[in-house]
Design a protein that fits this description.
Largest sheet: none
Distance between the termini: 39 Å
Helix content: over 70%
Structural class: mainly alpha
Strand content: under 5%
Order of helices and strands: HHHH
Length: about 100
């Protein structure tokens, strides 16, 4: 660990974590957008395809897209992490005059 990381104020560390979560979410959403677009395009191809063998292949592609979408949607706990981080960011710091949760 570099010395600058040890001496960085906590706010900088929190901001870096928040940026990392946002980047991860954007990547997941872009991938899911690709999967949705591919699935819809393949459904159109499936409906227009007269060849039975090609229809089987396209159906398998659609099933693969649907499976990947289902998997990705279950793995979106990173959204909850982001929400928690955002709430931590805006939560007021406790007053130094408060003790054991007493109101100021």
């Amino acid at each position: 660990m570099r010395m600058s990381q040890l001496t960085a104020p906590p706010q900088t560390s929190d901001t870096a974590h928040l940026e990392k979560l946002c980047t991860s979410i954007r990547g997941k959403l872009q991938f899911m957008d690709y999967l949705v677009r591919a699935a819809v395009a393949d459904v159109d191809r499936f409906q227009e395809e007269p060849d039975a063998g090609t229809r089987i292949f396209i159906r398998q592609l659609i099933e693969m897209h649907a499976s990947n979408l289902a998997l990705e949607s279950r793995n979106m706990s990173v959204i909850a992490d982001l929400c928690s981080s955002l709430e931590d960011f805006v939560r007021p710091a406790p007053s130094p005059y408060q003790k054991n949760g007493d109101a100021a």
